[in-house]
Every structure is written in C-alpha cells, then in structure tokens.
Structures
1.
Amino acid sequence: MKKIISVSLTSLLILAFGAIAYAQDAPKLAGYAPGLEFKASGWIDAQTLWYRNVTGGNAGSGIYNVWGLGTSFTAGERSGDLDKKLAYWESRVRLKFDWIYGKATSGTVQFEADAGVWGNRPGGNATVVSERNTYGYVSADRAALEIKHVYFDFAAPYFGIPVPMNFRVGLQGLAVRPPVLLTTDAMAIVGTFKVDPVTIIPIFAKYVEGQNRASDDVDLWGIHANAKIDKLTVGGYGLYYNMNSYPLFNPAPTYGTQTADFWWLGLYADGRVGPVNINFDFIYDQGKVKSRLSDVRDVKYRGFATRLAVDYPWEKFNFGIIGAYGSGADTRKTAANGLAGSETLDGDESYKVGSFVVPPATEAAAAFGESLVLFSTWLNRGDSGIGNNLNYNTVCKGGLGGLWYAKVYGSAKLAPWYKVTLAGLYIGDTTKNGNTFGNARDANDALRDDKGIGWEADLINEIEIYKSLKFAIGAGYLWAGKALDLYNGVDTNYSPKNPWQITSNLTYFF
C-alpha cells in the first residue's frame, strides 16, 4: 500500500506540473533549436596526501572503523596502516554541460572521473569488477568516466498564481545543510516556491526501488524552508526516510531483512549580526530499526547535534571561534552496526542508539571540512580524516556524532594572491561506557571511558596562481588523547603515534 501511495503521489506531481509546462514554448524535439544556449564548465585537479594514522576518504578505511564503537589493528593499503607513513597522488575531473532554453527550461549532464591514486593497478578497483576510479593506470585507456548528474529544470507558468515555482527532475545533488547533515546524489524531484521573503523547497527522492511488485523500496520525503530577515537567513526542515529495505544495499541473506523509519528535524541561521557573521545549526534525529525475520527487540535512535561558528572580519583579517557538540552512544545499549538483533560489545542485546547520526549515503562527513587530521578537510575535497565516517548502506555518525570540539582560527589575506590560515582545536569524546574511536579496556576487561580525543593545530596556505589555477597546501598535527587508544584483542592497550598530515591540491577551473 505504501508503494502504491508513493507512486501515485509522484505521478500526480509530475502530471500536474508537466501539463502546464507544455503551455510554454518548447524547443524542437530534434536538431538545433533557435535560442538554445550551450555552456561547458568544470575542473581538473592533482592532489597529494602524506600522513600517519589518519584515514583515506573511504568507508571503513583506516585504523578506526565506520561506526566507531569497535576498532582494528589491520587496515587496507592507503587506508591508514597503524603507525606507518603513507603517501600518494590523486586526481579528479568534472565536466558539466548545460543546455539552456530561455529563462524557463534547461538540461544538465555532469560527468566525473577519478584517478583514485596515480598509478592504479589494472583490473578494476579493489574487489569490484569495474574500472571506476582508475584512470591513473599507466597506459591509460580505462573505462573510468562516470555519470554524476542528469537532470532538467523548468519554471511552471503562473496561470494566475503569483508564486514563482521551479522544479528540478532527475539525478541531482541533494543538499540540506551539507557540512553537517545531507549531501548526496539521487534520483529526485525538488521544487522551489518563492513567497517573499520565504522560500519553500519540497523534496522527494527514490533511494532504492527494490522489486516493483513489493513494498521494499526506500524513499525520502522532505520539506525545507528559509527566509531572509535583513542580513540573516533563518530556516528549518524536516526529512523523513521510509526504508522498507535496510541496510540499503547489503547482499543476501541480510538484504531486506530489516526495515527502518527515520526523521531529521533541524533549525539554522546564517548571516551577519552586528559586526560578526554567524553560522548556527541544531539537528535532532529520531528513528527505529526493526527485523522482518525474527522476534527481536527494535533499536530506537534518539540523537542531536549543534554547532555555532562566529567570524569577525577586519580589513584583510578574519578571526573566528567554533563550538560544536554531537551526542554519543552508550556502548552497553548499542551494537557497533546499529541493527536489530545484534549484540553490544558486552554480549547484551542492542536496543538504543543515543549517538547523533546522519542519513544513509550522505557524504556530510567528507564535506565537514573542519580540520586536517581528525576531521575531513576542504583542501583535498574531503578525502581524508580520522572522523570521516561514510556509510552508504546505513545511518552513521557523520562528522559530529560522539564528539564535541572547540576551535579558534585566524586568517590573513597577505597579498591579492595569497591567504594563510592558522587554526587550533580541542576535541572531546561524548560516547558513554566506551570511546567513539578507540577501544581500550580497563583492568576489569570493560571498555575504558576516556574524555579526551586530543589537541590539533593546522596551517593552510592558499595561492592564486591565475584566476583559473589555484594551489593550496596544508599541514596538521594531532596530539592524541587517551580516547584514541587501541586494544590488541588479548591483554594490552596501545597508544598509536600522534597522527599528522600534509596535503596539497592544484586545481584548474574552466
């Protein structure tokens, strides 16, 4: 029944606005249409990563796992082998093509290709029989080009309704407060209704279809609204994920054996207040995971996160402070995978997750960009960081779950072509009866509960070589606290060497 309702509502939405769209002058179905404008844009980069005890930007990589309640001494190559230095080059290209017909309609196709490392091995990427991310292979000729986005935009005619209405349909980027919550690509219909000073954005996305004859799909329904009040933009949103197959893409026999329903509710404010600029978020998540196959206890999710950044720009300088808090799980109530029927590390049945979590498939942790070592960094497009937790199958902690931090920073535009930024952070742990990343144990063989993840210092240099060519290089060092200690699985705790990273990026824009 849910599937019938979903398909019906989506069809009515397309028909309602598709019918009035045909009232506009439409381009010819074949050949070049007079008035059609074509645009091409994109960028190509080359970046370096050199680090110790950090993490490559892939789910499950590094010495600390995705969920963060368990850890491992073993990790894959390039992914943060314990106490070893790793160094490699990467590249990415994005090509975007837009076909614009007047002010009412346009179509967009965007491609992406990666050299996951320069000098990729032949025969596909990791264990997947695919050449995705491998255009760095020595003799080239890899089938590495990927489709990133395919969508069209149209403006619905007013027909007496004085409200501008625009729609985007197809494979597109979905973003709701992307550094802290949702940033992904999906087949979706997103509207924008402008009722000054309020903008209303309804969202529907199809994450998983499953079998057409069954209610086993995964849908996102959301509403997002904001208003500009003087120099301040305030907004709020609600996102509902109806997941009739959970985890999303697990292979048999676990595929589709559980279901989940999740809500994310948030408020935010961005803009200028007096002499300072502020950026504020508060997010609450609530959900439940159930088993289809066995009579086991449901797992309930209740978590929250908040973040406040204050910037004071002064001539060629900018000074800022940031404070953020993400609720943590209780390891006596929570299993590492967060699924119904699973056990905690003490062998009890899991039933509650108090950690702040983000939706499946979101790359919010990679977009977080808050530091060079513990978090991801914008400098290498989010491709590193101990806390860079990505999980495309289930909810995960994102960039904020299970920790808090305080950050101070300052930047100076020393020349028209040169900017330098210095930052310092203290990061704490909010997981209960255990640690968010480390898994050290006490004398009673129980998980140790430490509060300090550590102090981090970062230095970033940005250089504009040409308007179309920019270079950035940064270095970060983390003085690790006890909350990053590891247990060897037998009888001993171990403190990894302090993590550090030096990373750079050279990007050509066109």
Note: The helical segments are 2-21, 364-367.
2.
Amino acid sequence: MLAGIFEEFQIDAKLQNVVTDNASNFAKAFTLFQNADDESSEEEALAVVNVNELLENACDDDSDDIPNLPPHKRCGNHSLNLVASADALKAREDKVFQRSYDRAMAKVQALSNVVSRSPKANDTVEEITGHTFLKPTCTRWCSEYYAVERVVEIGLDKVVECETALGLSVMTSADMKFLISFIKVMRPIVAAMKLMEGENNCYVGQLIPTIMGLQRKLQTAGEDPTMKPLTEALIAGLRRRFDCTLQSEEHQVSTMLHPKFKRAFLPDEQSRMQGRQLLLKYVDQVQREVAEPSAILPGGSSSEVEDDEDLYSFLNKPEQAGSSLSDEVIIITSVYLSIWGFHHAG
C-alpha cells in the first residue's frame, strides 16, 4: 500500500526516509521490503531448495512486483508517548511509589468518570469550580497529564468539596502533593511532545536537541525523593528508544543544518570539530550528486548542452567565487543563524 501511494503521487524516486509510528505492522513491512532487490544473505544463497517446486512456481514469481521501500524512521513524538506511558510503568516496581501513585490516580480517575457519565454531577462540579474534570483516554498519554493538571489547578479545597458533594473518597494533602510532583516531572515531556507534533516549523533537526534537553530536565527534577523511581524509569526509556537517534550521523547533520542549533548541541570542542568534518563530508557528497549532469539537465555531460539551453551558465564557478567548500558551509550556516536570530528577536 505504501509503495502504491508513493507511485501514485510520483514521489518514489524523491523519498529519503519514511516516518511512521512504532506499530509492529510498519516495522515488519520495512524489515521485509526495505531495499528488497538488493538484500541477500549468504545463508539464503546456500539454502537447499526443491528444484521441481522452484520450476513449477517460476511462472508465479514476478520480482518486479516486490515493493522496495525507503529507509524507515520511527516517529519521535510517538516514541515519547511510549516513554511516558509504557516505560514510566517501570516506576511502579517501587512499592512506595506504586502505593502513592495508585491512591492519587484512582481519585483523579473517579472524578473524571463521574462527570463524564452524569450530566448532573458535571453541573455540580461546574457550580463549585467553574470548570470540569477531564477524562484520560488510552490512546493519548498526554490526556492523563492534562486530567491531573486540571485537578491541581482547581486545588485541594475545591476538589474535596466536589468529592464530598458527589459521595466520592476524599483526596488528602499527601495525594495532592504527589500529583503536584508528578506534574512537575512530566511537564518537560509534554513540552517535548508539543514540539514534535507540530504541523509547522517541525524538523528532523529538532529531535536530538529536544531529547538532550529533556534528559537534562529529568536529571535535575529530583527534588521530591518520591519521584526518583519515575525519573529513573523515564531516563532509561529515553536512553533505550533514542540512543540510536543521538548517535545517528543523519540526525546530527540535520541538527547542524538547523539555524537554531548548528553545532551548539555538541558537548565539547572535540565533538564540535568532528561534527564540522561530518557536515563538510555531507555537503561535499551532496555537491557531487547535484554536479552530475543527469541531476541537473537531461542528456549527457554539461559540455554537450547548447549555450541557449544551459540555464545555469550564470553561476559563479568555485574558482571565481574565491571560497572553499569549508568556507561556504561556515558562511551559509552563519547567515542562517543571523536570520533566525533576527526573525525571533522581531
């Protein structure tokens, strides 16, 4: 189906990567059909086959129909969602955290359930608080965060008044303290998700700095010892799901080409020098690719193109420009940074 969509929109030759969620059907599709024409192993070459069956099925085998999918990238936002939902559950292995979490969340869930099921109860809550309680959904972890945030915003006194009026178990100050700490730990993850799910101004180059910033926030969020199991579980989840991304040269180049970050996300001078060499290598590769005649104009070398047909004859040659590839990269990224700073200062 994916290959058919790419062909229908005539973009199959332009694709560099395909981003999907982390569902197992996508993972299997790209495992089976990524570079399907080129992938063959020594084990397959030496496998024992039944020649009769091979000849009988030869007419049914049409290798041209086998889809060849581009490299696969897992959605950063969906991976963050899994960190916040699945990986965070590891914190419940700590019995103290588990008791506090279950007791406080059960009261949040009870408030959400009663106002969603009973219009009369919802009216009662609105009369007391001027708001209503939100109901978490299983498909979006952020909805749990927003449900807890609404309880914290309303405050303990009015929450207790609502619970008393609705005949529910009353929230204690210890429960509210736990919820406040929970919100403080989880707030950076919600901020990261908002960045990663944006329809505009959302780029691959934002992923590494976002994850690095999130790790730093979680490492310094340990003021409440009750939240230590949660922060440790979240940091471990980020490491497991994003370590490959942080080490990916493709993601690093994307980040260095983003005018907000350039090489500032790299931790020391040595890594920044290595990043510079990586960026130059990438730009040099792109320069060689677009310099091929087939990549610019159809039909043979540039010397065979008539002057009237050479639309790029006005361009300065590298010798005329008077700058090396290294200088050009530095100048261009500096200009990007100046434009970015001017734009946001305005």
Note: The CA atoms of residues 90 and 233 lie 6 Å apart.
3.
Amino acid sequence: MIINIKALIVVLAIAAVVFRLGKPIALQFSSEPDFARRRNVWFVLTATAFLSPSFWLFVLVATPLLAWAARKDSNPLALYLILLHVIPPIPVDIPMVGVKQLFGLDNYRLLSFCVLIPAAWRLRKLKNSSGIRGLTAMDFSILAFGLLQLFHYVPPDLPDHTILQDSATNVLRRGFLFFVDIYVLYFVASRTCSSRRAMIDAMSAVCLAGALMASLAMFEWVRSWLLYSSLGDPWGLGAAYGYYHLYFFRGGFLRAQVAAGHPLALGYLLAIAFGFWLHLRSHVKSAWQRGAVTTLFWLGLLASQARGPMLGAIAIYFAFFVLGPRAVPRVITAAIVVALLVGTISLTPFGGRVVNSIPFFGESTERDSFDYRQQLAERSWELIQLHPFLGDPLARTEMEDLRQGEGIIDLVNTYAEVTLFYGSIGLLLFLAVIIMGLFKAYRASREFARRDPDYALLGICLVACLFGTLLMIGSASFIFGYEKFFYLLSGLAAAYAYIGKIPERR
C-alpha cells in the first residue's frame, strides 16, 4: 500500500499541473462546468483506485459517481474518453452462483454501463431526435462481424492450454459483451456527436487525456518506475491479469505504459491524440501552447518506445497535410520538421539510444523481436491458406512452438489474427466499418473544402487518424485502446458525414 500512496502523490501532482495549464486550451472546446466536473471525477476515481483495498470498493464509489457525471455532462462521450484510462484495464471476474463467473469487469465495461448505455438510452427516448437514424451499412457490418464471432467460437488462450468448449450460456454472454464493449461505443459516437461542437469537445477530451498520459509517461521513462504497476496488488489480482504490472525495456530505457495497459497501447492513444491536435491547434492562438502540446505528445511517444505508433503518428502527420489545402508546400515543411526533430534528438547525450529505438533510424536493438514476427507471419500465412474463408478457431494449437516465455502466442498483427480465426470473410466484415467511415469522411470533407474550410479540415483530421489506425493495427494485437478507438473513430467518421448533411449543425 505504501508504494501505491507514493505513486498516487506523483500522479495527482503531475495531473494537477496538466489540468491547470491545459484548462485555458480545453475551455476553447468545452464548457467550464463540464471541464471542472470531468477533472474532479478523474481525481476522485484516481485517488479511490490507489487507496482502495478492494476492486469492488472502487466500483462501489465509481458507479454512482459516473452515473451522476454522465447525466450532468452535455457530452457523455467526452466524459467517457477522458476517463477511459483513469486506471489500467484490469479485469476482475464477477462471481455468480451456479457458474464459475459471470464475466470480467474492468474500467472499460464500467464506463460502458454507467456512461455509454445510459447515454444511448436517453437518446433513444428523445422524440424527433436528429441523432436517431436507422441502421446504416456501417452498423450492419459491425453487427455481422459480431454474429460471426458468436457462431464461430475462438477459445481463449489459457495458461494451462485448456481448450474450453462453447455453450448456449457462453454464446449469450459473448453476445451481451459484444454489445457492451463494441456496438454501444460505436452507436454513441455516431449518434450523440450531432454537432461540430460536440465532436470537437470529444476530440479535445482525447487530447487532454493524452496530455495527462504523456506527462505521466515521461516521469515513468525518466525514473524507470511504472506508476500503476502495483495498483492491483491490494485487490489480490497478482500477475495473472494483463501487462499492467510488467516492466518492458528497449535500448536501455523503460517503456512507459501509464494506465494504458501496454506501451503499444499508450503509443497508439498518443498518436491519435496527436492526430486530433493537428486540427484543434488551428483554433489555439498562442504559438507556445501549440508547440508545447505537440512536443508533449511526441515526448510521450518516445517514452512509450512504441515503433508502430511512432510510424503511425508520422503517417497521420503527413496524411493530414497531403489531403489538406496547399499540400505540396505543407508536406515539404512537414518533412523538414521531422528531419529537424530526429536531428535534434540525436545531438542529446542519450540521443543515440533514442534514435535507435525509432523505426528506420539507427540500428535495431531487438533482432529477436523481428525474427519472431517474421516466423509468426510465415506460420499465419500457412494456416490461413488451409482455411481461407472462415478461418480456424483452433489455429493456436498449430502454433505452440511460437509460444513465448511470457506464456502467450503474441499475434502482433491484427489483420493476421482476424483472418486466422475468422477467415477472409471475417476480415472483410471487420474492415468494412472503418473503410466505409474513411471514405464517407473523405467525401464529406471534399464537398466542404471550399464552402467551409475548417469543417473540411476536421474531416481530413479524422481521415488521417483512420488511415494511421489501419497502419498501426498491422503491427499490434487488437487489445486495449486499439479496439476502443477503432470503433470510436469509425463512429466519429459516421457522425461527421451525417453532420455535413445538416447545415445548421455545422
């Protein structure tokens, strides 16, 4: 408990500075009551988590607090996003009489139950709400992929290698959790962001959460101390739940992960926050504030030492300028900025080790990781060819020789993972939602390029983040923030295209 109290002091001190300095920027996109409420709830939940001797005590405090805040907030999605990683996504089984457990509960699901589902319910009850519209092709693609997962059972990869059998009860459980974890997030994002202000408010919440995580990540990186690593110890969770307690190093540096659950997840979240900031910064008059926030996100990315997200952030950066106005001079400027950034870092005392950790710069320090990924790719392709259309739910049994020392087969490519278990049909359904969102947002942005340049740039920002996500999931498993933001971005793209059809809402 003592280590948690020390960590709590550090977290609260850093967060207080970020909220104080970030308030003038945040208030340009959010109302003051919403900002104050979200900040206060963040502080209360953080303190409760670190001081609570039981996860269920945390839930007891969090549930009414979240329900109250969601009802008061003008944009529940923004509240959800600022609190999405207030603690790591540590799952705790809900006990149930007659069965081993009902399902695992973590911060993601708690927020879904207390914030998203009530928001969706209130939206459905509104009469003549413009946010309510019939199921679209994007809705059908998500639901179809969910149905495929229901009827095509993939057993979990358990430490003892036991292959659990499916059952009617398990089908119902998985269907319920698909709705709670995935569809309700997409529904709320695509329906409640019914105006430009609501969408920008949600994007600013991601940026504020990103600023918090980047600041804490820099502390972890410099001090080689994972602030949230002991959070679950008083809860009796041990080392059996996720990566939040593990220390990863690269190039002699600790890879920060804060409350994201994994360094890759942290890097991805910061890459998306940076992408959103590319648009929001045009509304910030202060040059030093624009530069400070951009620098903070990149320092957080360096602290995560996540190569895929670094590449993704660079891709988002260039895509934003390529697709926007005055593409050629802005792309040249962007290239110069990237070159100067790498050059400046390389001149620092520890620059060599930092640059070596950046993709395509310096020398690789992890040849074993590269070889493992290559073996995974080759084996995955062999197995996909055997079951090309619907995949093989038991594909892991053919990959036992690739099980790592951590006891897992680390499928670090979402495309390969989906195709292995659900085949090319599953991959098509999986990608349909985000690809349709990308094209809808791009088409809408082109339509408004002349009439409403700012609204057009908002769409370009979403397109760049969607493109970056498609790139980043090729080098990471579909876990933690990757899954949440995949469907969040798809929902925001659908909302953006819909808002564009209603002039008064732009």
Note: The first strand starts at residue 92 and ends at 93.
